Amino acid sequence: MLLSSLVDWSRIMFAMTAMYHWLFVPLTLGMGLVMAIAESKYLRTKEDFWRETAKFWQKIFGINFAIGVATGLILEFEFGTNWSNYSHFVGDIFGAPLAIEGIVAFFLEATFFVVMFFGWGKVSDRFHHFATWMTILGATISAWWILVANGWMQNPAGMHFNPDTVRNEMIDFAAVALNPMAVAKFFHSVISSWLLGAVVAMGICGYYLLKDKRNRFALESIKLASTLGIVASVLTIATGHLSANQVAEYQPMKLAAMENLQRGQQGAPLSLIGMPNKDAHPVLAPEEKAWNFNLEMPKVLSFLAFNDFNAYVPGMRDIIEGGYTKRDGTIAMSADDRIASGKVAIQALADYKAAKKAGDEAAAAGYRQVLDENFVNFGYGFIENKADLVPNVGMLYYTFRIMVYLSVFFLLVTILGLIFSKRTITKPAEHDMRRQGWFSWVMLISIPLVYICSQCGWIVAEVGRQPWAIQEVLPVGAAISDLNASSVQVTFWIFVCFFTAMLIADICIMVHAVKKGPRTDEALPAASER
Q1: How many domains does the chain have?
Q2: Is residue 482 part of a domain?
Q3: What is the distance between the alpha carbons of residues 260 and 262, in angstroms, rounded to a whole number?
Q4: Contacts with 498 (C-beta within 8 Å, 6 or more apart), sequence order
């Protein structure tokens, strides 16, 4: 019971830290692009309006950047404090991209951040413009290496297990750095962050339109942000499809749980909206009715997974029971067989170390062979109940759909934002976006909605991987540190208070900056004067 409590508290603490951190990262990436484009317009036009516009968005970027760094550092330290078995087992691999991120990317963005934020009037416009783009490039490169580490957890590759040190060691850096799961995750995460930054910028401008002040700034920024948002929305959908391909290939249980797919089939349907039966479970209650209600699109899941409307998509029960033919032509092992094989691997490792200690090289070689033959299932040896191999279906099903439907909603918002802003800018006498008060409210309300969408994406990615810390290599129960559960509980609540205070401070500072607004001229008169 203590171990279970320790695992649960360690997981919830890491999840809380990661979710707080992800409140700041996407705005850094997205707002960085907004400010950089605004400064590019200043460099081209030499118009003071665009310089002040760039300065304003840089201020929002800077506030968010500083607090994001603090939460990110704490997140990385938790691998050593709460997940020391994980760090020992794969530290040689997992630590490499994080080290590169800190040494190269972080120092790159931090160096140019200083020039960008404090260099106005002190360096040339061209060099300042260069520093701004290098700052956002550094932030993006930083995201690349962090997502390489995360992608490796989703699809471990380029490694070899050393039984003498009981560690996985990197043998192919390219396989780690160019992991297809990491590539898909990088493009989807970064581009969706562009969308978040665009929507937040539009929401702030919606506030100005409702207040009927700084009208030119609001309209020009909406035009800029909505254009970026449309591009980001389309690319987010495209990269989401790429991510679905990778999930289907390397994490079939996650895909099946996202769709509440109990039994696999060719031409598998995609659920548009439904209500999974919470009492149904592919292991604990396999005969229960899977749905209370479901509206589906025939064959669409097969296409999303494998770009083939007739492809076979395994369900949760198929993955547990095994016996189906996988895409590579091999027959899937059952969960029972994989657990048995994993226990053989764990025992072979113990026997190998005992034989090495006794100096019996012949016996050690035999045990090493058994270990190598069964290492592919090593992580399953720590699984006590195969029901634990099924993640939380209800959470995955609903968060995935919230993410998808909100993404479509933001595409519509950005399209309308571009249409309304361009009409007002080009023909202010005939069209006035300020008359569309409802749309200003839509943009403003979209700020919390886009954060909900972003958080749902990471819930799908990380909860869907459970119970694995490293997919099919190390479950979370074997990855934790040997700590007292009560100490983790105390630290959790301390961090909740600390992060909440930081979030409140961040919001208050940004609200103050928004109320103060940019120092820009007003080309459009107030609505009351027209």
Answers
A1: 1
A2: no
A3: 6
A4: none
CB contact set of 58 (below 8 Å; sequence gap of 6+): 35, 39, 116, 117, 132
Strands (E) in 110-227, as ranges, are: 159-162, 167-170
Domain containing residue 339? 335-386
Residue 355 included in any domain: yes
Element (H, E) at 198: helix 180-211
Assign 527 a pLDDT band (cuts: 50, 70, 90). Answer: very low
2's enclosing H/E stretch is: helix 2-45
pLDDT at 133 over 70: yes
pLDDT at 4 over 80: no
Instruction: Give the amino acid at 279.
Output: D
Q: Which letter does DSSP use for residue 482 in this model?
A: S
In the 8-state DSSP scheme, what is residue 155?
S
Report d(CA 304, CA 18) in Å as an integer: 28
What b/e sequence results for 366-388 when a residue is b if at least 16 CB atoms lie within 10 Å of its CB, and e otherwise? ebbebbeebbebbbbbbbeebee
pLDDT tens column, 183-229: 999 999 999 999 999 999 999 999 999 888 888 899 999 999 999 99
The answer as to whether 286 is a domain residue is: no
- Please list, in sequence order, all residues whose beta carbon lies within 8 angstroms of the beta carbon of residue 91, skipping any fewer than 6 positions away: 167
| Within-domain flag for 376 | yes
- Confidence band for 140, pLDDT divided at 50, 70 and 90: very high
Q: Distance between CA 530 and CA 361 in Å, rounded? A: 92
pLDDT greater than 80 at residue 430: no
Instruction: Say whether 499 sits in a helix, a strand or coil.
Output: helix
Tell me the pLDDT tens digit for each residue of 334-373: 999 999 999 999 999 999 999 999 999 999 999 999 999 9
Taking the model in full, what pTM does it have? 0.91
**Burial per residue of 233-260, b for 16 or more beta-carbon CB atoms within 10 angstroms, e otherwise:** bebbbebbeebbbbbbbbbbbbbbbbbb
Q: Which residues pair with 270 in a beta bridge?
A: 297
Task: Name residue 288's amino acid.
Answer: E
Q: Alpha helix locations (H) across 390-476?
A: 393-426, 437-463
How much is the pLDDT for 193?
95
Q: What is the pLDDT of residue 137?
A: 92
Distances in Å between the Cα of 394 and the Cα atoms of 169, 321, 466 are: 36, 21, 14
Nearest to 128 by CA among 114, 108, 109, 142: 114
Return d(Cα 511, Cα 331) in angstroms, integer.
Answer: 57
